[in-house]
Predict the 3D structure of the following.
Amino acid sequence: MTYETLNYIVDDAIATIILNRPQRMNALTKIMEAELRSAVEAAGRDENIRAIILTGAGRAFCAGMDMDELEVLPPEDIQAEQWMRPYDMNRRADYQTRYSYFPAAPKPVISAINGAAAGLGLIMALYSDFRIASDKAVFATAFAKRGLIAEHGIAWMLPRIIGHANATDLLLTSRKIDATEALSMGLVNRVVSADLLMDTARQLARQLSDEVSPRSVRTMKKQLWEAPFQSLGESVTQANTEMVMSLQSEDFKEGIAHFVERRPARFTGC
């Protein structure tokens, strides 16, 4: 696929999406925003893809909204229907809004955070399933310093990841934190040296692609993202229903077979 503001690369079963406006620290424009959603949705639909990596070109992951566009952004744009459409009716509408559509993708999304992740860049990382940070990465909510508020569900998401006290700190002060502090808060899964970032992300993507059932990953991702809306009883009921279907799946048969036969798995996702 060809895009104006990002690169979309498929290698074996891994789709790598690279935000490609390095001269602007990969700040989001409306074009990039539309292209990013298109790329994530395309990877989600592609049966040959089993994992998605998101990263940035140059020294930044994503520095937030491009200031030239933010300055003239019409207030009503935030609720424009084009940004809020669902694309998969089997996924909660909560996760198909303007920047929360990553959870609706049936493939795991890995954010490889190579540099600054601020504002909307931080939001994209939070909605990913894995966050691997370079030791050069820095993080900031930035909204309070722009006279804005906690946008796009970050007030719901951030406390669930790093706790209420840390979320309050980052949102109200808008202070920058480095990768070490982000790791201590639980904001990222791991921190690696800059030269190992993409290799580490690809190693994780390769593990998700080769070693585990894509059907299991798809179902468990849905369970994890829906659990905050459920009671324990509802979660158990959903799990019981899914368990019956998994026991009848081809991937379950293969999961037993490759273990008994002591060979690499050949999961199909069915």
The chain is about 40% helix and 15% strand. The CA atoms of residues 129 and 262 lie 30 Å apart. The first helix runs from residue 30 to 45. The beta strands are 6-11, 14-19, 51-56, 60-62, 109-113, 116-118, 130-134, 138-140, 177-178, 190-192.
